[in-house]
Amino acid sequence: MEEIKEILKRYPDRRGALLPTLYIMQREYGWLSQEALQAAADALNLPPATVKGVATFYAMYRHKPMGRHLIQLCTNVACMIMGAERLVDLLKERYGLEPGGTTEDGRFSLVIMECIGACDRAPAMLVDTDFHADLNEQNLFEILEQYK
Amino acid sequence: MEIFLLKNIDNPESHRIQVYQQTGGYEQLKKALSMKPEDIIQEVKNSGLRGRGGAGFPTGMKWDFASRDPKLPKYLVCNADEGEPGTFKDRPILEKNPHLLIEGMVISAYALKAERGYIYLRGEYPHAKVVLEEAIREAYESGFLGQDILGSGFSFDLSVHQGAGAYICGEETALIDSLEGRRGQPRIKPPFPVNVGAWGMPTVVNNVETLSNLPLIIKIGAEEYKKIGNPECPGPKLYCVSGMVERPGVYELPMGTTLKEIIYEHCGGIKGGGQLKAVIPGGISTPVLTPDKIDVQMDFVSLPKVGSMLGSGAVMVFDESVCLVRVCWRAIRFFEHESCGKCTPCREGVGWMRTVLERIESGFGRKGDIELLQDIASNITGKTFCPLGDGAAGVVLNFIRNFPEEFDYHIQNKKCMVEA
Ligand SMILES: Cc1cc2nc3c(=O)[nH]c(=O)nc-3n(C[C@H](O)[C@H](O)[C@H](O)COP(=O)(O)O)c2cc1C
Ligand code: SF4
Ligand code: FES
User: What does the alpha-carbon distance between residue A12 and residue B152 come to, in Å, rounded to a whole number?
Assistant: First the structure.
């Protein structure tokens, strides 16, 4: 809660701290469960409905449990023309992993991204907060094998 | 032209304050603090600097509006949302030259008499967040941020506000809502943020690259600055090039460098010696151009003359191997995903266009589908709350106008021209 106190200092009112607080709760709870949303509402003294309304607007807040590692793969135009869709197919073939889904062993979740600002090195993805670019059918799995 | 915005970035330590200061960093802040705020605003007006976030609005004029509003406090917000597909020009500044941005922001804040600033950073740039927060810490430690900066009596606090994956939050009024902890939906204008912005106070929103030009303007003065690039909209410009070229990447060049020079000289031409088929000059929302147009100068005044826009300076190059119907479909899928849902023509119309494009692309197109797309698009144009809806409609209309044969081929032959 010290962390939230620090964040509150940056904004003229409590609501300003809502987005960063949701990130903190997502980190602590793994996803924005009912409990996590309630904790955010309590910390900032905001109505739970307000908190939920904001949380559901943004694509990077998670509303269901996630695997241990989150693959965020871009398929926007620059990545698409460099073969990103083939990589999506391969993830399904190799790990049974579908966009929006999680592998059975809970190791990976996959989210399809719009442009992640790496179009010069397409296709690109984030794994958790690590950035990987110039992906192809081989190095994709070499990279993912490092995430246990 | 001497490199300014991307200076030092080959140095692995370029993000550190020592490296920045060793090459003259924060000297311009000292100079600026000895000037009168109104003189800085005048200098920015004289420089002809136009905003690099997409719309090209004259920065000095925006600052003038904000500084005339007597309400206090004032806010300075850096737009680091960089969400326009194809755009990655702000990223090297954020990750490798963060002190240039911070110095630019402190100078701007001093000119505007803003005591609080935020960098609204897209959630998709976690590394930039780490770098920026460390750079801000360094700047506080060295007395370039915080109370009574360098003994000038001026105080300025700055922090990073991380977005959470919504393209629409790049639009300045939606960005302000998101900063305030709300759903990021565009507000009606007027009032403009310069009068009624964050928490109801006068707020200046500027792009990363725009603010990073400030140290240069202070350093060389408006007269010299105007000599860089096209005098009608001068300055250095970051062009980010992706797609089918030999050397994609970010290039700092004088504003108004031709598209041809960018593609064929700086980027080494089309990948594998292929044929250029189409190019988007300023990010996915800007009208696609045919190869006969590439002699155009890449700036705010020249591109409109050939029917497009500079946008974010994101050049996307397509050769003969790329199916443009598929590119168009993917672009519209993006807009559908990012529509904030506030107005019906955008919320419903963009999804409908995606459905029709999808069926054309997958070989189930029907006679009349092209006319249908044009009809839907013209019913969106001019009827939406913010430019996102117009942008989506424009993408469809321009792809069809410039490459009708690809759409016709798809519908008639139930397959792609490229694979054929
Ligand atoms: C849908 C939409 C998305 C936008 N995205 C961005 C963005 O990611 N970054 C940005 O700087 N400006 C973006 N803009 C432009 C901003 O609204 C605003 O004009 C800009 O931040 C002003 O800064 P400037 O004058 O320095 O260009 C966007 C505009 C619209 C309509
Ligand atoms: S045009 Fe689209 S994105 Fe813009 S306000 Fe309307 S629904 Fe939202
Ligand atoms: S399109 Fe994938 S990173 Fe830009």
Answer: 25
The per-residue pLDDT for range B7-42, each reduced to its tens digit, is 999 999 999 999 999 999 999 999 999 999 999 999
Which pLDDT score, from 0 to 100, does residue B76 have? 98
Average pLDDT in the B220-234 region? 97
- Enumerate the CATH 3.40.50.11540 domain ranges in chain B, comma separated: 17-227
Which run of H or of E encompasses B160?
Answer: strand B157-162
Closest Cα partner for B225 from B371, B43, B383, B29? B43
Where along chain B do the CATH 1.20.1440.230 domains lie?
A: 324-413
The answer to whether the CB atoms of A119 and B85 lie below 8 A apart is: yes
In chain B, CATH 3.10.20.600 sits at 230-319
The string of pLDDT tens digits covering residues B150-194 is 999 999 999 999 999 999 999 999 999 999 999 999 999 999 999
Question: Residues B77, B68: contact at Cβ < 8 Å?
Answer: no
pLDDT band at B417 (very low <50, low <70, confident <90, very high): confident
**Dist. CA B373–CA B12, nearest whole Å:** 49
Task: Provide mean pLDDT across the span B62-73.
Answer: 97
Statement: residue B420 has pLDDT above 80: no
B61 lines ligand 1 (CB under 6 A): no
Closest CB from B179, B180, B330 relative to A77: B330
**Assembly ipTM:** 0.97
Tokens standing for residue B353: 């266009």
Q: What is the mean pLDDT of residues A111-135?
A: 97
CB nearest A13 (choices: B126, B184, B199): B199
* Ligand 2 midpoint to CA B391 (Å): 10
CATH C-level class of B230-319: alpha beta
Transcribe A67-125 into DSSP letters. Answer: -SEEEEEE-SHHHHHTTHHHHHHHHHHHH---TT-B-TTSSEEEEEES--S-GGG-S-E
A118 CA: distance to closest CA in chain B (Å) = 6
pLDDT tens-digit readout, A31-87: 999 999 999 999 999 999 999 999 999 999 999 999 999 999 999 999 999 999 999
Dist. CA B384–CA B188, nearest whole Å: 11
Any idea which fold B17-227 has? Rossmann fold (3.40.50)
Residue B121: strand pairing partners:
B80, B162
Q: Cβ(A88) to ligand 3 under 6 A?
A: no
Ligand nearest to the CA of B167: 1
**CA of A94, closest CA in chain B: separation in Å?**
25
Q: Please, is B118 exposed, middle or buried when counting C-beta atoms within 10 Å of its C-beta (0-12, 13-18, 19+)?
A: buried
For residues B339-365, average pLDDT: 96
Distance B280 CA to ligand 3 centre (A): 14
Most informative mutation of A76, A111, A134 for ligand 3 (most atoms within 8 A of CB) = A76
Sort out which chain B residues have CB atoms less than 8 A from A41's CB and list them: none
Residue B120 has pLDDT above 80, yes or no: yes
CATH number among 1.40.20.10, 1.20.1440.230, 1.10.645.10, 3.40.50.2000, domain B324-413:
1.20.1440.230
Contacts of A122 in chain B (CB under 8 A): 242
